[in-house]
From TrEMBL:
PROSITE patterns: HTH_CROC1 (PS50943). This is DNA-binding transcriptional regulator, XRE family. It comes from [Clostridium] fimetarium. Keywords: DNA-binding. Residues 27-60 form the HTH cro/C1-type domain. It comes from the Bacteria. It holds the Pfam family HTH_26. One of its GO terms (molecular function) is DNA binding. The keyword Metal-binding does not apply. InterPro entries: Cro/C1-type_HTH, Lambda_DNA-bd_dom_sf.
Length: 73
């Protein structure tokens, strides 16, 4: 499963907030809600977040193995 815990840590250590992401950088509130719920995001959105926060993808998300992950077999 994909976890966005690194995003929240990166956001906390930056000068940005969810408010500035929405108002200054035009990140939609639904994107913020998707991050909160752990829902999927497009690579374009991930790219935008990395650009805004000046960080690497691993500062936004991480893969956490989970028994509920879909098997490829």
């Amino acid at each position: 499963m994909i976890s966005y815990k690194p995003f929240w840590n990166t956001l906390e250590s930056s000068q940005e907030t969810t408010y500035t992401l929405i108002t200054k950088h035009s990140v939609s509130s639904s994107t913020i809600n998707r991050l909160r719920r752990g829902d999927g995001l497009s690579t374009l959105t991930l790219n935008d977040l990395c650009r805004i926060l000046n960080c690497k993808i691993e500062d936004i998300l991480e893969y956490v193995p989970n028994n509920d992950d879909q098997s490829l077999q």
